[in-house]
Amino acid sequence: MARLATADAEEALDIVQEAMFGFARRYGGRTAGEWAPLFYRTLQSRIIDWQRRTGLRNRWRVWFGGGDEGDGHDPLENIADGRTPDPESALADRAVGTAIEAALRQLPLRQRQAFLLRSWEGLGVAETATAMGCSAGSVKTHYSRAVHTLRSLLEEYR
């Protein structure tokens, strides 16, 4: 979830680590059954904080002329993976994965949260509502809208 929100694996790991420390500090005494929704609530809070900080930093960079620190090219991406038996299927899998990530990024924040918590993390409606800080009805609405949007965006991959 953090990687989708940041589009940067290292930033995502930092956010998850901050969320884990905050969760342990604040909710360590709770029962294990409460942990999943409370952790995801903490994680979502950290993701939103990161997005706000990043937006503020980007506004200052525009004013002061700061640019990218590199060209963003990773030379290791061009090295062949010896574990992949079929390059065509690997390319197709990569294309589908990229399409799914792009479609998820197009969803509004609350729809993306509901979809990821329900579908990818396997939380129930009540747990997702706790994690998102909203009602169960809102979770159902956000999830339904997300599913319909994703179906239309990913129609060609059915």
TrEMBL record:
Q: Which UniProt keywords apply?
A: Sigma factor, Transcription, Transcription regulation
Whether ATP-binding counts among this entry's keywords is no
Task: Give the InterPro entries listed for this entry.
Answer: RNA_pol_sigma-70-like, RNA_pol_sigma-70_dom, RNA_pol_sigma70_r4_t2, RNA_pol_sigma_r2, RNA_pol_sigma_r3/r4-like, WH-like_DNA-bd_sf
In terms of superkingdom, the source organism counts as Bacteria
Please report the stretch or stretches of sequence annotated as the RNA polymerase sigma factor 70 region 4 type domain: 99-147
Q: Which family does it belong to?
A: Belongs to the sigma-70 factor family. ECF subfamily.
Q: What name has this protein been given in UniProt?
A: RNA polymerase sigma factor
Species: Geotalea uraniireducens
Recorded name of the encoding gene:
rpoE_1
